[in-house]
Amino acid sequence: MNPDLLFRTLAFAGYFIILAIIGWRAYQRTTDIEDFILGGRRIGSWVAALSAGASDMSGWLMMGLPGLAYASGFESIWLALGLLVGTWLNWRLLARRLRVFSQAYGNALTLPEFLANRFQDHGGWLRILAALFILIFFLLYTSAGLVAGGKLFEAVFGLPYVWAVAAGTLAILLYTSLGGFLAVAWTDVFQGLLMAAALIVVPLVALGQLGGPAAALTQLQAFNPALLDPFTAGDGQPLGFIAILSLAAWGLGYFGQPHILARFQAIRAPEAVPQARRIAVGWSLLTMTGAILTGLVGVLLLDSPLLGDEREKVFIHLVNLLFHPLVAGILLAAILAAIMSTADSQLLVTSATFTEDIYRRLLARKATPGQLVIAGRLAVVAVAILAFLLALDPQAHVLDLVAQAWAGFGATFGPVLLVAVYWSGMTWRGALAGMLTGGLVVIAWPPLLGDLFALYELVPGFLLSLIAIWLVSRHGGGPRRELAAEFDLIARGL
């Protein structure tokens, strides 16, 4: 075997052994469906924060964002800034309230269940619609992670793309189906720390090769001054207001991401939220700064320019150029960590939604706790297979796939959840109208109006969803008096 390939294999094998041990330990502590879906609501601030951050960033942090910085320079700062502000606002506005309200309304384990309990949706329309949107958008989102994993295995081990995607899928299935939420959360901590270390080490070593930050800036200025101007694209064209708004508006998506919001529901107590918020924001600032620096130094250190989807491999190329194969293997495992920490969370939330909101409510109302856990594990496998089939296109761009799914969740659930935990006057019809409006606008905007208005579909979807919630709630009869009173009683406890 080639020595370089041997060292990489050893590094990846060690990584998988650690994940398997964590998964087995979590399996031993998973006894019922609440453990499987939310870890018994007992995770601490550090685990909640790092797990939320790692499951949030996905492969785009190690591939998509460095690729964007490589191609467009400081234009990528608008995206990072929007995400940083969105992270802070999500923890500040939604985390504590969702933790309290989700437990107060029938100990809801999933977002569809919370919405159904919050509005006493006895007909089940809210629950079913929310579950369907989660299943659809998470299939797309999870496939993005598998595409990133396939590209990684293809680049590191020379595997054919299909086999590379299959290898990544099997690795994620190993511990997610066994250990449920605890396995996902605990592995996320390990993976989040590995991602942060890699995004510190790689740009620092690269800057040392270039003679330090000042020398690197001078070289970038000489190479292409447009890369250092946040108001200019990489090709020298000025960025318009719509382009900047579309990048920064990614931060709106945080309010509706079920795999991130599950950490809010699972944190051990509302009082643990402020510390978790500080940790999460600090981790996001550190890792996104490192990702942007990685793309910029790649412009100067790589001899041949990267074109098309090869730009998303700038981190891989730099690692192979700068480090010993064993160290390179460890650093490349950070990409896998980014991919797996998101894909496992998405698989788990999708499984939870199917098990709690479809299987338990519609197909097996008398299922035992053990049967529900088995159903959840089987659902993880089924969703992974479907996502694998969607990921078989090797030309798919990670950032594009993530952008579509991120907008879908942000517009479908973000406005509904924000209003649901702040306004007692919201009705179930308002929630239904908000979800439908946000989801359909995100789906319809690119093909119908994308060419005319080059605006990220999350923006119109989010705003129109808010308007629909307000109009239908105010003019659709208003909430029942007892529901508003129950909401006010819970809110006073905050």
Which key features would you list for this structure?
77% helix; 494 residues; 18 helices; mainly alpha
Describe this structure in words.
77% of the residues lie in helices and 0% in strands. It is built from 18 helices and no strands. It has helices spanning 3-28, 33-38, 45-72, 76-104, 111-118, 125-157, 161-210, 213-223, 241-248, 258-266, 273-301, 314-322, 325-363, 369-390, 398-420, 428-449, 458-475, 481-492. By secondary structure, the protein is an all-alpha fold. 56% of the residues are buried. The chain is globular and about 70 Å long. The model has no long low-confidence stretch (mean pLDDT 84).
Rounded to an integer in angstroms, the radius of gyration calculated over CA atoms is 22 Å
Helicity level, as a percent range?
over 70%
Report the oligomer. Answer: single chain
Runs with pLDDT <50, length 5+? none
Topology pattern, helix = H, strand = E: HHHHHHHHHHHHHHHHHH
What overall geometry do the principal axes of the alpha carbons give? Answer: globular
Could you tell me how far the N terminus lies from the C terminus, measured between alpha carbons in angstroms? Answer: 61 Å
Beta percentage is under 5%
Return the structural class.
Answer: mainly alpha
Count of DSSP H/I helices:
18
Largest sheet: none
What value does the average pLDDT take? 84
How many beta strands in the DSSP annotation?
0
Quick rundown:
The chain has 494 residues and is an all-alpha fold.
Question: Any chance you could write out the topology, listing elements then pairs?
Answer:
Blueprint: H1 3-28, H2 33-38, H3 45-72, H4 76-104, H5 111-118, H6 125-157, H7 161-210, H8 213-223, H9 241-248, H10 258-266, H11 273-301, H12 314-322, H13 325-363, H14 369-390, H15 398-420, H16 428-449, H17 458-475, H18 481-492
